[in-house]
Amino acid sequence: MLQAPQRTALSGPALIRLLARLADIDVSESRQSLSDRLSQWLGWTDAIALSSALNGAPPAVAAGARVFGSAEEDECMRVRRSLTDAVVGDSVLGAARRRGRAPAQRVSMDAAVAPDYAVFRQRYLAIQQSMETGVANLRGRLRGMLATRTPAMARLALLDAVMERALGERERTLLAAVPGLLAGHFERLREAAQQALAAGTDATCGQAVAVTPDGWLEVFRQDMQSVLLAELEVRFQPVEGLLAALRVR
């Protein structure tokens, strides 16, 4: 008996592994080094700015900025918790749980019809915007504190600013493609539910069968939540890096 080839396990962020599974695509590990990939992503003006940040004289240490302490740690935790709660408690993604799961009932093929995917796309984009704004504000605030520490820390703050400016547009473009990948997952789940329901109807000579009408939709909601939470992890990586630098005494 022939066996389907197994996909190579990815070692990247959870977001990439989730999207590869949900989009049903085989993603191989890149053989390019980080420097090679950066050379393709950065324009010449970005490359000059990056070189200046790395090789130029250390920036002068800024004065007057607020000293890093527990209040800033708490604020970062608050923003992250708020964004997480926005995903977990979202009315669109949690609609089925708030209504309570309906018991199995006799339904027709219309039970496999769901709200238009545009509703989910708009919600995903709105949450993405909240993430981008919240993380950008934190990142700028932490950079300002880092710039008051030492010349080496001030250089790191400058480097982070250059990287955010250089890669921000590419990041937005790549993350904006995620709802499109989820659209395919949405349609595949709906089609599978319709086919299963049709098969059940045929098997009983036209009689409707007992099913959970929105079971596939609940699966999609949970998958979309998982992707959003994984995206939040990716977006917070620069913040975690700046926090780690600020914790150094």
Q: Beta-sheet strand percentage? A: under 5%
Radius of gyration: 24 Å
Overall number of structural domains: 1
Structural class: mainly alpha
Task: Please give the number of β-strands.
Answer: 2
In round numbers, the mean pLDDT is: 80
Protein name: DUF3348 domain-containing protein
Organism: Paraburkholderia ribeironis
Report what the structure shows:
InterPro entries: DUF3348. This is DUF3348 domain-containing protein. It holds the Pfam family DUF3348. It comes from Paraburkholderia ribeironis. The chain is mainly alpha-helical and 249 residues long. The protein has one domain (65-99, 106-247). It has helices spanning 14-22, 34-41, 44-55, 70-88, 95-99, 117-146, 151-176, 178-203, 215-235, 237-247; strands spanning 105-106, 210-211. It has a two-stranded antiparallel ribbon. Helix 3 runs antiparallel to helix 7 (151-176) and helix 6 (117-146) runs parallel beside helix 10 (237-247). The protein is elongated, with a radius of gyration of 24 Å. Residues 1-6, 98-112 and 202-210 have low confidence and may be disordered.
Notable traits:
249 residues; mainly alpha; two-stranded antiparallel sheet; 67% helix; 2% strand; DUF3348
